[in-house]
Structure formats: structure tokens, C-alpha cells
Amino acid sequence: MSTSGYGLVLVGGVLVLLVVGGVTTGLVGSTGETGPTLASESPGSGDALTVTGVESPSEIRPGDSLRVRVRLENSGDRGITEPLTVRVRDEDGMVSETSTTVKLGPDESTATTLVVDTETLKPGQYTYEVDSGANSAATGAVAVLHPPAFSLSDESSGLVVVKGASATLTANVTNTGDYRGLQRVHFAIDRDRNGSVSAAETTDERVLSIAGGQQQTVEERVETTELEPGQYEYRIASENESVSGTLIVQRPATFNVLNASAPTRVTRGDPVTASATIENVGDVDGTTTVEFSGPNGTEPMTRTVTLDGGESTNVSFTASTANVSRDTHNYTTSTETDTATDAVRVESSYFEVSRLEGPSVLYVGETAVFSARVTNVGNVTGTQSVEHRIDSDGDDRPEAYGVEESVTLKPGEQTRVRFELEYTLIDDTDYPVEPLKLETYVYGIYSADTRASSALSVKPAWASGSGGSNGGGDGSSVSNGEKASLDEITQDKYGYYYHEVSGETQRQVREIYDRQPFADGLVAVEVRTREQIARQDYGADIEPGDEFDFTALDIETQQRVEADFDAQFESESGDRIESWDELAQAEYGTSYENLSDTRQSSVRAAYQEQFD
């Protein structure tokens, strides 16, 4: 493009200033004024061709023609024909010229444009002259501009980044020419580090428009999330040159757990001490939380560790095993990026209770002897209190009442514990057990680890001769095929007369009464109601004294309870509840599961009617 400038031409003794948007033109000043003089001209005769003005650009681009517009005048009284020439010269002489012929009548003026070919001109400053013959001449100047030329420089800095952070490649592109031009720039990173840049590793081109003599900065953001730590060559290229450099991606702070150790065995109650080396295998410093955890019963512990890249330190943790079960457990030491596990066997004594012996029937006032074998099946020597317990409150969960023995056993060693107790119906402050009623009770011998349990029936002293388990003698309790009265059954089981107990208890007593005689030499006190069987043997959630709804039990439990209840009697007559299968066999001659849906529904209805 042309830029504004000025030029001076001496025409006919008058100094001409030519400035028109980069084009020289006009008349300035008069003879006698001071100022720079580019050329001189001798006055011509009255009929001479006179140059009255010259217009030309002060700048042209390489390859453009120089266009010089000349204004001419014939001030004479006759017509003239004269040659008009424009010559462009450098400091070594003429370079190129062009000519034309001008014809003017008397007092006539004109303007003409001469085009000078400048293809051979290199960028620089040139002078030219306009020659109209012997009588008139003018001179001027023109600059052939330097075309756009671009230089590239790498201005990237801080190209050492931690993986996951971004880096910025920066380049400056400078136009060293005299006018605006376009330049393409692209960035590339050798992501696969194979020594060359593929098309996939090259970014989109940036097209820059830069004025002459100006500089522009261009940047490229490089994400390193997908780059492995290491060195990567990058290249910044323009259309005619390129620069390269190195991007270093550092490994972030990464904490590994090394050399983890803990004891392979420990006795329960003793502490477990574990240690490990924590090493930052990254290239930069960082902070991590080291956590130590174990099985249930172990409180997690933590340490905060700060390490430089490549630095390591040792950590240790001590945990209690008081609440840890006897088994092999994993203890772990971990950071955010690594975990090490140690298997520790927590050993302890384990007292197994077996071979329980005790009376099945206890007559009031007699001494009961309970014993059991206690074996340490654990792997360390231990000491435990072994207790005798009895369900004195009727909730089917035997309670401790202070009758115990301290036992110490080596691994594999065993002993037999023995408790000799006298039970009473009297509430005695010197006696540790709640007074027992004439009922059936669950009792057992317990260690801290296991138990052995059974049941006994408490009967009145006068029943001790009735054939019960504690001896013979005469009494009012009935067995061996004879039929007991309602009062006798109620007295044996509860210590009351039939009319003194609740309606629910009366109903259950009558069930026992109707099903007599008792089986296997049982006496009334030993015969359990359906409610007792459901609570004691099948865990039914029934509080003693509450109304017992047998049908509220699931069918499977009902049938099991009924089978246990029936086994206490010699006869299956009376109010025995028949099972689904028994009803199906009686009605249809096949098992319940072989029936159609309709017949199964009929069997279930018949089963339910037995409770109405």
C-alpha cells in the first residue's frame, strides 16, 4: 500500500510541494523563498514547453509500475511538438525510462501520465527526472518498499509442568517488511516421542495479519493429562522457518507403600504394631494421608506425611486387639495411590463347653449337681470364668447369678467343672437364685466363648416318689399310664390349684389333661405346653403369661411344635392337631404337595378348623 509522504520539484523557478495521500502534487512558495532545492531549470523562450507540475507516489511495492503525472503548458504564440521523458535512476545511474510526445497549440496546457516499468528495481530509494526537452525539466524521488518478511522466535518459558497441569507454548512473529502481510503458524508436539511429528500431533494453523515493522504474539495451550511423565520435543513453524524446544512433564507426587511389615501372630489383647516405608516416587513434593486400618474392632489411624520428590520416610502404627476375634485378619497401610496388606493371626484361648450333665427333674429341697467338660481348643493359654446359669425369670434366656469357677487351661487342655446347688421355693437373701416355681427351666454352663444347655423340671417334694428322674416313692403325681386330674397337673406344673390359674393357663392344662396318658414315664411337671415348646425350642417371641396364639406361628414351626407336643403322650387321640400331609393323606390318599391348588386350599381350611 502507499503511505503519505512528500516530494519537492522545481518547476519554472517555482518550488513545488507534492503531497496527495502519498502522491506528490501542487505548487508551494514563490521565487526567493528559502527551502530545499531538488533541481534547477533554465527559463525557456516564449514558445517553450513548460512543466507546471508533477504528481507521483512517494512509495511503491516491488513489481508495481511508477506512474508519473505531468502537467504541461505552451505559453508561446505558436504550436509545438516536444518529447517528454521520465527517467528513474539509482546512485549508479539510469535504471529505466519511458517517453512520449506532447503536442500543444499556442497558450494550450495539458496533463499526461507516464508509466515506468520498475520490475527490475530492488527495494530502496530512487530519484527520477522529467525531461520535456531542452527548455524544461523536473526531478523527484520514490521509494520501492520492502515486501513483508517474517521472523519467528520462541518465547516459551516454564515448560516444566506436573502431569495434569497445562503448559503454554509462546512465539513472537515479526514482520520486518514495510507493509502488512499474512503469515501462517502452527504448533506440534511429538506426543509418541518417536522423533517425528505426525499430522495428528500438529495443531490447527493460526493465520496472522501483521503490519510492516510490527510484532504479534501467538500461544498454544498444551494439556498434559494424557501425557506420560518425560520429555517431549515441540516445534513452532511459520511458512519459512521453525523453532523447536523441549517440554518436560513431571510425575506428580505419588506415594507408594513399601516394606510393610507386621507380626504374623499376636495374642488377643496384645497390641499389633505395623510399619511401612512411604516413598514419594513423583518428581515434585507433596503431602498425603497415610491410613492404617484393621478388622472390626480396630479404630483406623492416620498420619500426614510431606515428602520431596524421591524422598521417603518410615511410619508405624500400634493397634489394640482386645476386641478382635480369634482369626486371621488383614491390617492395611494405605495412601491415596497405594496399599499394602499384612495378614496377622490373632490367637486366643477358646473354651469349648461340652458333655453337660444335670438332672432333668429336680424335687424341691434336693441338691442338684451340674457338670460339664471345658476344653481350650484355642492356641494360647487362657483363663476364664465358667458360669452356671438358669432361666429363673421365664424368658428362656438363662441368667448368671454368681455361681462360677475360674478355669485356666493350656492349648488342648481340658477339665470338668462341677456345681452343686440346692434349689428352694423360698425367697432367701442368702440364696443367689430367684425362687423357682414348679415349672420347666432352661439352664446351662457358659464360658466366654461357648455354652451347653438343657432343661429341668422343678416338682414338689411330695412328687419325688412318683417315678420321676430323681428317685421313687409315693406321691400324687401320676404317670405310667394313669390319668392325672386337672388339679394334680396344675399343682405339679405351677404349684396352684386349677381354679387359681388364668384362663389361658387353664386352657393349656386342659390340653395336657385331654391327651393323657403321658409317654415314657413322664410326669405332669415334665410335660410342656405348646407355648413352652415354641418359646424354648423354636425361639417364638411370646412373653410368659401372654395369650398364646398357636396359629400366629409359621406353618413349618406349627407342625414341628405339634410333633414335639404329641411325642409327650402315649395316645394320639384327643385334641391332636393333624398336619397338612396327614389331612391330605386321610382325605385324598396322597401328600399335600401332590394336590391341586383347589385341594391344597381345602386342606388348609380343614387344618385351620382344628383350632376353632
Describe this structure in words.
- This protein has 612 residues and is mainly beta.
- It folds into five domains: 7-144, Immunoglobulin-like (Sandwich), CATH 2.60.40.10; 150-250, Immunoglobulins (Immunoglobulin-like), CATH 2.60.40; 257-347, Immunoglobulins (Immunoglobulin-like, Sandwich), CATH 2.60.40; 351-459, Immunoglobulins (Immunoglobulin-like); 461-577, no CATH class.
- It is 11% helix and 43% strand.
- It is built from six helices and 35 strands.
- The strands form nine sheets. A five-stranded mixed beta sheet has the order 5-11-10-7-8, with no helix packed on it. Strands 13-19-18-15-16 form a five-stranded mixed beta sheet, with no helix packed on it.
- β23 (286-293) and β24 (301-307) form a beta hairpin.
- The longest helix is centred in the last third of the chain and has 13 residues, at 503-515.
- The radius of gyration is 60 Å and the shape is elongated.
- The protein starts with 6 loop residues before the first strand and ends with a helix.
- 30% of the residues are buried.
